[in-house]
């Protein structure tokens, strides 16, 4: 009797083990199949999400490129070399330096000088030299002298470059409007952070300056910024300061040597006012207009980016499920 029960028990136990093994095998099989199916699903979802992610990345890069296009950028730094003249004796000195360093000098005429001096200077200077007008304390009070010199130049068939050498605190809205009323198309402007060039909302071109009146005037850092920013600037030497010795010959020569070495290394080029103005004037839209266009474009692009984010988020949530 005991043997019979023992055989029955063993038989049941074997059957149980077999059934258990079968259940485990089935569970392992179904688990593997589930994992395989899940892996295939994830792969499919990854393939599905990839084009949306690529499009999103491309649109974000496009936004960045559009933002960069808002601000004016030149392909090369351009240096103008100007001289604020005070006497005809300055002309031969300027000509010597222009020949030695191969640049076309800009003759900066102080409109408050005596008319006889201005006439003599213009008669002595090369006709190919560009003329830039200037008044150290430009305002409504000195504007008459500017108009007078403009009239004189017209009477003798000489033209000025259209850009007024406007210094420091005199770059006010009212003074710039005066210049516009006088027929000027641009002005120089000193930016304390780094040299800049561009076009104002009303179409006026502008570029930076460094006005040198004494030895040791800090200009090297500004010129370094000029090269990095690839913009335009006029370096203006005050001839009265050179004549008096406060701006020494050695300093001027050293600075011109430095400028020339940069041009030889293709870090910048000596340029003319006409070339700089032409480049700035080729900007068909002002910065404000470009900003408006940029904002209109980004609204459409951002809307699509938002749509893509929702699609991508939905796909990833399906992966988690």
Model description:
The chain is α/β, with parallel strands linked by helices. Helix content is 60%, strand content 14%. The protein contains ten helices and nine strands. It has helices at 2-70, 89-101, 115-124, 140-155, 173-181, 220-229, 239-244, 249-264, 273-281, 287-320; strands at residues 77-85, 106-110, 130-134, 163-164, 186-188, 197-199, 205-212, 232-238, 268-270. Strands 1, 2, 3, 4, 5, 6, 7, 8 and 9 form a nine-stranded mixed beta sheet that branches. β1 (77-85), α2 and β2 form a beta-alpha-beta unit. α1 packs antiparallel against α10 (287-320). The chain is elongated, with a radius of gyration of 37 Å. The model has no long low-confidence stretch (mean pLDDT 84).
């Amino acid at each position: 009797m005991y043997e019979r029960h023992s055989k029955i028990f063993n038989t049941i136990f074997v059957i149980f083990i077999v059934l258990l093994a079968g259940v485990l095998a089935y569970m392992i099989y179904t688990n593997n199949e589930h994992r395989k199916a899940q892996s295939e699903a994830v792969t499919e979802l990854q393939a599905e999400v990839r084009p949306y992610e690529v499009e999103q990345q491309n649109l974000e890069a496009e936004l960045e490129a559009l933002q960069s296009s808002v601000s004016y950028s030149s392909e090369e730094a351009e240096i103008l070399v100007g001289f604020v003249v005070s006497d005809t004796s300055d002309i031969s000195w300027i000509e010597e330096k222009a020949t030695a360093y191969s640049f076309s000098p800009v003759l900066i005429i102080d409109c408050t000088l005596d008319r006889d001096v201005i006439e003599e200077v213009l008669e002595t200077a090369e006709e190919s030299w560009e003329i830039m007008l200037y008044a150290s304390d430009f305002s409504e009070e000195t504007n008459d002298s500017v108009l007078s010199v403009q009239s004189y130049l017209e009477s003798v068939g000489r033209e000025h470059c259209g850009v007024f050498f406007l210094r420091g605190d005199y770059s006010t809205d009212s003074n710039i409007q005066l210049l516009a009323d006088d027929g000027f198309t641009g002005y120089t402007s000193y930016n304390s952070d780094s040299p800049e060039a561009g076009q104002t909302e009303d179409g006026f071109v502008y570029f930076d300056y460094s006005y040198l009146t004494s030895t040791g005037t800090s200009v090297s850092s500004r010129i370094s910024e000029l090269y990095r920013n690839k913009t335009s600037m006029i370096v203006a030497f005050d001839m009265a300061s050179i004549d008096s010795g406060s701006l020494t010959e050695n300093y001027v020569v050293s600075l011109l040597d430095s400028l020339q070495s940069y041009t030889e290394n293709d870090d910048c080029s000596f340029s003319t006012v006409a070339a700089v103005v032409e480049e700035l004037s080729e900007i068909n839209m002002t910065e404000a207009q470009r900003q408006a266009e940029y904002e209109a474009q980004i609204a459409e692009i951002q809307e699509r980016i938002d749509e893509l984010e929702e699609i991508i988020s939905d796909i990833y949530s399906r992966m988690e499920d």
